[in-house]
Structure prediction request, 149 residues.
Amino acid sequence: MTDAARALLESLIDYAGLFPPAELPMREAVAGYAAGVAFKATAGLHHPLRSAHPAGAGGRGSIVVMHGFLNPFLAAALAHARGAREDVLVPVLAGESAGPFVFDGGGACVAGRRLAREEIASTRRSFALSFGSCSFDDPVSELKARGII
Prediction:
């Protein structure tokens, strides 16, 4: 991936507060990867895993299923390190439990596929660069509560 080829992956949430099905952002990320375009995932990635939460300011909105930030990054690592395609990646992005994600000092097991720590780090350096969240504390607190960090 070159520095000139970077993209924002904003389709994880639309501006009406509706979250698209997992297929849409995953298709965009896979197409970007095939074209050599790295991405930053933005908009609505407040929780580690895809799950139901109140939408809107102060958590007072209707309950919607929001994409998690671990989901697209682990799916991106599978695409980057293993060449995984949509049939493998969409279930990873759509997953709503930590069951398919197992972390240890050497890396992670994602949907039964092992990713070494260096493969994940390489993905972060050259393909899945960062994500946006409205909070620093909330994602860290949830990762701690799940025993990930």
Q: What stands out?
A: The helical segments are 23-34, 70-82, 86-94, 117-126, 137-145. The radius of gyration is 15 Å. Residues 6-145 form one domain. The chain has a mean pLDDT of 77.
